[in-house]
Amino acid sequence: xxxxxxxxxxxxxxxxxxxxxxxxxxxxxxxxxxxxxxxxxxxxxxxxxxxxxxxxxxxxxxxxxxxxxxxxxxxxxxxxxxxxxxxxxxxxxxxxxxxxxxxxxxxxxxxxxxxxxxxxxxxxxxxxxxxxxxxxxxxxxxxxxxxxxxxxxxxxxxxxxxxxxxxxxxxxxxxxxxxxxxxxxxxxxxxxxxxxxxxxxxxxxxxxxxxxxxxxxxxxxxxxxxxxxxxxxxxxxxxxxxxxxxxxxxxxxxxxxxxxxxxxxxxxxxxxxxxxxxxxxxxxxxxxxxxxxxxxxxxxxxxxxxxxxxxxxxxxxxxxxxxxxxxxxxxxxxxxxxxxxxxxxxxxxxxxxxxxxxxxxxxxxxxxxxxxxxxxxxxxx
Length: 381
Hints:
This protein is 37% helix and 14% strand. The strands form two sheets. Strands 2-1-3-5-4-6 form a six-stranded mixed sheet, sandwiched between helices. It is α/β, with parallel strands linked by helices. The protein is globular. Helix 6 packs across helix 13. The protein has two domains: 167 residues, Spore Coat Polysaccharide Biosynthesis Protein SpsA, Chain A; 205 residues, no CATH class. It starts with a strand and ends with a helix. The longest helix is centred in the N-terminal third of the chain and has 23 residues. Strand 1, helix 1 and strand 2 form a beta-alpha-beta unit.
């Protein structure tokens, strides 16, 4: 049974934030490799390399073929995979996993064929497959998030998940996530982030205050918020499963699928990104916003290639997501380094806001919020 940890090294022209995140994720991958071996995996490998244009599906198939050649195995006709189970995850996945969590994935991968286990079947970061041969017809899925859906709908594999274990939903996708996890990184030296986290902690402890949480907020997080924070909570839940909704993973008719849409995004379309601060101030005393939903609303679901914009964009503006360096700078409230005009204006509005606004991704509005609340309850800001 093999554990394969996929790690994308920073490209040669990467900016400092992308490079720092890549180094941190590689360190996490090494730690996960050792932890899976301790949990009973036969083999655990970190497959690292610079971006090469391959999709997740193509990369996974290529890595399995390469390992088969290295171990002297023969690929049967038709590209069938070698026997045995497989666990696949990204280098920033499940940093809060405990030994018992990893053992559960190992048990499924080593168990009877026809089964798979994900941390979340609707948007996976780690998947255990009891028979690697079930991946023989894997299409070029754009990301790992859609793998459980493909296994269930296309490959006929019974998929279960551990989404009730909130810690397994934490993923390191941005330097901000490192700070929320207490791992430091470039966010620790960003001048405004510490101030904003302290202000958010005050709101979380205040029974008279109200927090806005907007984006891919999970059902588990919503239930926890009822008692996990002292303040009232206004939740705007949008585009859950955004990255798992690949048509390549779905069976049956897939026509007529709507592009990503956001209610908050519609307001920003109407009033401009600079209106974020006043919009939030009308709704709450603080906000944590998953900006990837807003970007998907504006530019389309694909954050790795040119996409059809959800709304018209200026002729001088490319219809593609801002690059990772821009997105990470926005999360750290560093607008001076952001090249994308729309995202820079949104970030400047968050900075100018009279109420604290934290911008981030999926972890910020789920596990990161829990970690922040735990520190707030302990009196650590």
